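ARCHIVE CARD
CATEGORY: sequence design from structure
SOURCE FIELD: tokenized fold
FIELD CONTENT:
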């Protein structure tokens, strides 16, 4: 059973600036009475996750405060978040992962049933993604012939 979640949270969130304070990360965007990331943390805990490793960049103080409120949360900052991408943040977090894990984004809303599906999936690897919608904030996922993750990028493949 999966008990660990990795949350990539190093993005700057510049497109959200009219709706979010300059010092706050994307995951701090309000969703009802709390932030998107806090909703995700609570949902993950409800699903049985007991270790949540967050890779912040911009606004890391916000995530560090959450880690003080949730003993399940460990934050490992990407110090070069503004010059690197999600894969670099992931490379900093992987050494702290000791078992199978969910890999999530900080600014997405996860339904409990999607998380449960992923946690109970019988194969070794699973990527849940939405179709291309042209919202302007897509992450393109590339896998090899064995369905192993090769890359994640904001750049659309050719």
């Amino acid at each position: 059973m999966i008990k660990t979640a990795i949350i990539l949270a190093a993005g700057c969130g510049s497109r959200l600036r009219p709706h979010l304070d300059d010092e706050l990360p994307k995951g701090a965007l309000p969703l009802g009475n709390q932030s998107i990331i806090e909703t995700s943390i609570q949902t993950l805990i409800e699903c049985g996750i007991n270790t949540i490793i967050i890779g912040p960049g911009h606004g890391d103080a916000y995530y560090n405060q959450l880690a003080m409120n949730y003993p399940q949360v460990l934050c490992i900052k990407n110090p070069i978040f503004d010059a690197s991408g999600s894969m670099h943040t992931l490379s900093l977090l992987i050494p702290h992962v000791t078992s199978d894990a969910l890999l999530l984004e900080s600014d997405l809303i996860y339904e409990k049933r999607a998380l449960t599906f992923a946690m109970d999936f019988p194969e070794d690897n699973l990527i849940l993604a939405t179709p291309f919608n042209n919202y302007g904030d897509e992450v393109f996922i590339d896998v090899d012939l064995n369905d192993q993750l090769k890359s994640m990028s904001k750049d659309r493949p050719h």
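CARD ANNOTATION: The longest strand covers residues 4-9. The chain is about 25% helix and 20% strand.
SHELF: design records, drawer C
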